[in-house]
Hints:
The strands form 8 sheets. The protein has a 6-stranded mixed sheet. It has 3 domains: about 105-330, Spore Coat Polysaccharide Biosynthesis Protein SpsA, Chain A (Alpha-Beta Complex), CATH 3.90.550.50; about 385-480, Nuclear Transport Factor 2, Chain: A, CATH 3.10.450; about 500-645 and about 660-755, Spore Coat Polysaccharide Biosynthesis Protein SpsA, Chain A (Alpha-Beta Complex), CATH 3.90.550. Helix content is about 35%, strand content about 20%. It has 22 helices and 27 strands. This is Hexosyltransferase.
Amino acid sequence: PACPSAAMRLAALLAALRPVLPLVLGLSLGCSLSLLRASWSQSGGEDQCLGAAGRLGPLAGGVHREAVDARPGLGPEDFRPRIVPYYRDPNKPYKKVLRTRYIQTELGFHERLFVAVLTSKATLNTLAVAVNKTVAHHFPRLLYFTGLRSAKVPHGMVLVAHGDERPIWLMYETMHYIHQHFGSDYDWFYIMQDDTYAQAEQVKALVTHLSINQDVYLGRAEEFIGGDEQARYCHGGFGYLISRSLLLKLHPHLDSCRNEILSVRPDEWLGRCIIDFLGITCVSQLQGQHYHTYELAKNTEPEKEEEEEFQAALAVHPVSDMTLMYRLHKHFSRIQLDRTYQEIQDLQMQIRNLTSLTPAGEAGLTWPVGINAPFLPKSRFEVISWDYFTEQHLFSCPDGSPKCELSGASKADVSEIIESALEQLNSRYQPLLRFSKRQLLNGYRRFDPTRGMEYTLDLLLEAVTQKGHSHVLAKRVSLVRPLSKVEIIPMPYVTEATRVQLVLPLTVQDLDFVANFLDMFAMNTLDTHDNALLTLLFIYHPYDAQRVSQVDVFAGVKAMVGELEKRYAEVKIPWISVKTEVPSQVKLMDIVSKKHPVDTLFFLASVWTEVNMEFLNRCRMNTISNWQVFFPVHFQEFNPALVYRGEQTASSSTDFLRDGHFDRHAFAEACFYNSDYMTARTKLAADILDRDEVLESMELFDVFLHYSGLHLFRAVEPGLVQKYALRSCNPRLSEELYHRCVLSNLEGLASRSHLAMALFEQEQANST
């Protein structure tokens, strides 16, 4: 009787395991095959490799055995990335690794193209200037080389003079100079004459399609007079391209070429040098890329040239005068512009054809085609507002006034947009209709960071038919000025090791906050050994200055400074006493500036500032001598009595930068170099002469804005957080400064929602 029961239990167990049985069998089979494959690899792989190496024997030329595993065809300078394992000798003490300034230097990247223009003293102010105005700004780096320089170098041109006008000597010195100063920084070197017009964009496109792993000597190939039929040199009048590898190999032979090769033409001399010592001849096409050139005849009219060879030319020679250079540039720029417009139309057509295949269909097609869709705000706080304008006035002014005259760049922008709108309307409706502008009724514009500047125009137009009938109508048009290619602005290198000199002006009204400032300074800079110093500026009222021998209002602050100097023996905190009724920033900095070296980096702080290492590093990085000054916008916390209304103050990190705002009315904090301030102050003194009362209405921001010519970097700074305090506004200051101080106090009370809640509670209390 037990057997049927056991059979039933077995059948029930198999029924329960049946769904997972394929999974168990698959896992078992996979593990078995993995073990078998691992055993095959271990049994045969290592012995076979060792046996092969043993049969090969020692390698020729002293190459190590590890080189057997290297891939064939790779030279000593391989351009494939490779991982270098990190190894540190445990017997040697640890030493900090010095990193390079830029990551491209550490990775060994080179710039793409360097251009050298050969000119002379006679043509420096004519043809060389024409080259500089037409194509120089299209190349990443361009230098002019001449034998003898003129008395005055044209503006915006970097000139290298070798001191000798002999053509061969000029070519020799130029090649030597390029190798010495730029040989390790660039991949390609393009050499041209000042009577050559080169299409810069085409030259840059050419080098992007050529491999840097070859010795390249590319240009218009010419035969030597009475020489080998197979040997060619590159004609200098049409420019030629040399790779970095060829330049590095050629440099050791330049002296021999100068002494042994006789030639009248410098391009022939260079070509003979490359052929004799490197065995490389000039070619006009390489790796599927053609170097197209065109030789201009006398009295050529570029606008009437219709030959295909001229239209496709990468370099044109000879250019006899400046006017011809400008005409060539205009002609080829128009050709390039037409090609670009045609490419845009082709791409837009392809986008329209492919849109029907997308999940959104034709509804997902944005206008203009190929431009990003407009920004969609997720809340009312993200809505981008429109600015209203007419042909005469702008109703959204930079200074906050409701209406101002349309002038400068804004006026030119509006005029260009109206002309573009008329041009687009006429191109669409002609010859049936021809439009002319009567009046701009309404104009709106806004900047969308995802796509560019958007415009909406209400135009009063006069439409004329083919028969001469006219009609006045109003039409609304929309236009977009899309964002073009993003340009990286080169900035000078700065370091975080610069010493920061803090300057803290103090008045009698600031005495209650000095203790907190000194505590934060000691904790965030002195305890961390940050490279920062502090100078206190005691501002005495004339009445307090007379009684300083009996009662010193700053005696308590001086005692706190003494305690800090006792606690930190290596720290000295100097102070400067000033007597004035109107504590002008400019007058105070005049005193401080004279007591410090010109290379001092100042941080002008306020007594409510909580100094920390994060901000000091940004102060160092954002302030660049003779280039940029930094005016941070601190974060001002609201009045806790209005925000929390008796509740516990939120102190968690999640509420950081929550109950407050960035005070855009405050300009008390500033980072700048003493040399930049002295330069701007000198220009200011020459402008105002002896009218010192003007300084009372100015801040440092105004000095740098109007008299320095430097970049003023004004940005929000989350590292500068100030507790709420009611600032005392000095009525002796100018009206603008006093008004700005009052606005700062009012906007720093609380947000609109907090103020509304406080008023609501007050009304509720009054009603009861």
